[in-house]
Amino acid sequence: MNGKHYYSSHDMDRYFNDPEYRKSFTSRKQRRTDRWYERYWKVLLVAGILIGGGGIFFMVHLFSGLPSLEQLENPRPELSTRVYSIDGEVLGRYFITNRSRVTLDEVPDELINALILMEDRKFYRHWGLDIDRVVKQTVKNIIDMRLRGGYSTISQQVARNLYLTQEFSVIRKLREALTAVQIERTYTKDEILEMYLNIAFFGRGTYGIASAAQMYFGKIPADLTLSESAMLIGLLPGPALYDPFNHPERAKSRRNLVLSIMLEQRALTEEQYREAREEEIFLRERDLYAFTGIAPHFVEHVRRQLARLSEQYGFDIYRDGLNVYTTLDSRMQKHANQAVEEHLGQYQERFDKRWNWNIRRGREILQIALDRHVRDYEDYRRANTPEARDSIRSALMNDTTFVKEVKRQTQQIETGFVAIDPKSGHILSMVGGSDLRATRYGLNRAIQIRRQSGSAFKPFVYTVAVDNGYAPAYELLNQPVVLQLADNQQWRPTNADGSFGGRNTMREGLARSINLIAVRTIMEIAPVSQVIQYARRMGISSHIPPYPSIALGTSELSPLEITSAYGVFANEGVYVEPIAILRIEDKDGNVIADYTPDRREVLSPETAYLMTDMLTDVIDGGTGIAARNFFNYPAAGKTGTTQDFADAWFIGYTPQIAAGVWVGFDDHRITFHDWSDGQGSRAAMPIWARFMKYVYEDRTIGMPVEYFKKPDGVVEVIICNDTKMIATEFCPSRSAEVFIRRIAPGTCDEHTSLRRDEERRQRGATSY
What we know:
Elements: H1 9-17, H2 19-64, H3 69-73, E1 81-84, E2 90-94, E3 98-99, H4 109-119, H5 131-144, H6 154-163, H7 170-186, H8 189-199, E4 201-203, E5 206-207, H9 209-217, H10 226-235, H11 248-264, H12 270-278, H13 296-313, E6 323-326, H14 330-354, H15 360-376, H16 378-382, H17 386-397, H18 400-410, E7 414-420, E8 427-431, E9 451-452, H19 458-467, E10 475-477, E11 483-484, E12 490-491, E13 503-505, H20 506-511, H21 515-524, H22 528-537, E14 556-557, H23 559-570, E15 574-576, E16 581-585, E17 591-594, E18 599-601, H24 605-621, E19 636-641, E20 648-653, E21 658-664, H25 675-678, H26 680-683, H27 685-697, E22 714-720, E23 734-740, H28 750-762
Parallel strand pairs: 1-6, 3-5
Antiparallel strand pairs: 1-2, 4-5, 6-16, 7-8, 7-21, 9-14, 10-13, 11-12, 15-18, 16-17, 19-20, 20-21, 22-23
Helix pairs in contact: 4-10, 4-11, 6-7, 6-8, 10-11, 11-12, 14-27, 15-18, 19-22, 19-24
C-alpha cells in the first residue's frame, strides 16, 4: 500500500514481549543500514577527500602568498631615483612609485605622534593585530552585509604596501594579518614606523613622507611645522579627498581634526594647539614645471644613459632609489628656458602671420601632414577593416579642431639649445624643443636631430687654413668658381647677396660670411680631407661628405656636437667630451660610478686663439653684430643659415661658456620665408644672446668677466692694409692684426720706397 508498512496491535505486543522477534527487527535495520553504506560509501569517501583537500589547498594558497623570511628581513620598497643639478636642485625622478627614503631621526616627533594617534593608537601595545578593532569591525560587516576595512594597524599597512597587493578580499586580509605578526617578530616598533613613513601614499603620485614634504611644501621632513605635519597625516585616509591644492578647506578642516585629537590625547599643549590651528599654510607654488621639471629633455638624456649603464652595474633605475648627480646648473637652465620662451613667443607670432596654408605649397604640405597624423591616430590604427579606416579618416579630415591642431603642430617653430663649460665638458643647460613643459620622452632637438649647419661650419675650414700657416689677413679672390662634380654636374657657388669682386681676407670672409672666400679657402689652402680630419678631432661625429660644398655647411650636425667643437676654440685648443652625469650613488650613499670626461689637445693654443680672434669680429662687426644689443661681454661666435632658410644657427662662446642654438621646423618642407626671418642672426642668435645676458647678470651665479687669453706664441701687430705686412709710418691705411709669432710678416717696404721716391721728385732729383 503505497510502499508503506502498517503494523497491528498484535504485532506491537509481540515486539515488546518476544525478544527473538525484536532481534529480527534489529537485524532488518542493520541490513538496511549496511545496504545504505554499501551504496554511498564511495560518495562519502570522495566528499571527505574533497573537503580535506580543499582545506589543504586553501592553506597552501593562503601561505603561498606570504613573503619569505628573506623578504621579511630584507624588504625592498620601490624607491624613486632622483636626479640632481650641480647646484643641488632635484631636476626629476624615475619611478614606478614616487618614493624617497628618510630615517626616523629625520622626522619631527609631532608628526610621529600624529600618525600613531590617527592610524593606530595601540601601536606600542599590540603584536601586529588590534583584536578589539577586528572584532568590532567584523560585527559591523556582518550587520551591514558588506566587507569593509578600517581596522588595519600600522604593521598591517606596512605588510600590505611592502609585500601584498592592494586588492580587498578575505584572502588578502588573512595574509595581511599573518604577515603583520611576522613583521612584529622581525622588527622593532621604531623600524616599523620608519618603514611606514617611507612607503605610505600621500597623493599626487608621492610615496613616503620625504616626497610628500617636497611636493606640498618644498621642504625636507625635518623642517615641517606642527601644522604642516598634521596636514600631511590628515591626507592618509583620502589623499584625493583632502588634497590641499584642490580642496583647501577640506584639508584645513582635516588638519584641525588631527590637531584636536592630539590635544585630546595630551600630545599637545593648549598653546601649541592654538598656534598650529591659527598658522597659515603656505603650499609650494605650483609653477610651470611642477610635474615635468625645468629640464625634461636633459632628464630624459640622463635616463637613456642610465638605462645603458644598468646592465653593467646591475641597478634598476625605477626601483632602487639611486641618487644621480649631474652637471646641469638649474639657474642657467631657467635662463635658457626664459630666453627660448621670450624669443620664440614673438617669432612664432610673426611667422604665423606670414605663413599661408592656401597657396599650392601650403596645401600640399598640409595634406601630407594630415595623412601622417591620421595614421598615428589611435582609433585609426585599431580599425580592422578598410571601410572602418576610411570612415575614421573622413571624419578627421572634416573635423576643424583636428585640422587646426595639425596646422599648429606642423608650423611650430622648434629649437635645440645646449650650453657647455668648455673647460670641464659639463652640460650646463639644455632645451630640446619649444614646448618647455613637454613630457621627458619627447624628441630632444639638442641631441637627436641632424641638420645642415650652413655657415656655422665655416670655422672648421678656416681652422685648417690657419693651422697650415695662413694668417687671418691672408687674401683670397672673391670671384665666382665652377666646380666639376663626379656625376658630370657643375657646382656654381655664389655669395648670399649675389655680389662678388676683388679680394678679401679670411678674417673678412668669416666675419661677413662670404661664401666664395670659404670655397676658395677649401679649394686652395684647406683641403677637404684635412677639414674632415680636423672636424673629427674637434668632436664632430656625424657623417661629413667629402666634397668642397661642406665649406658652406652641407653636412648635417647636431647642436651638441657642433657646440662642443666650438668649445675647442674657447679652451685653448683642448677638446673635452661633453658629459651629463658626474656621479651615481645607491640609496645608502655608496658610490656606484663617477665620471670625468675624456680630453685631448687637438689644436695649438695659437691656432685656437687666432680663430677666436676672427670669430670675435663676427659679433663685433659681422653677421652676428646684433648680439651686442643684448650682450656686451667678451664673446665670439658664428651665424649659420641654410638653403631656402630651412635651418638657422648661432654657435657662440665666452671663456667660460660655449652655447649653440638651432631653430627650424620638424617638417623639412616648412621653411622660413626669406632673409628677414630665416637668417641665423635673426632666428637663432637672440636666444643665445639673451641666455648669455641673463647668466652673466645673475648674481646668484656670480659669473666673472674673463677675456680670451692670448698665448705667448701669438703677436699682435699693426699691418699695412695694402700689403698685409707690418706697417711703417708711411703706410696710408693701417689696422691691427694677430699672427702666430713664427710666421709673422716682415716690415712693409713698398710704401716706404714710394714715399722716398715722392720726396726725391719734389727736390728735383733726376736719378735714383
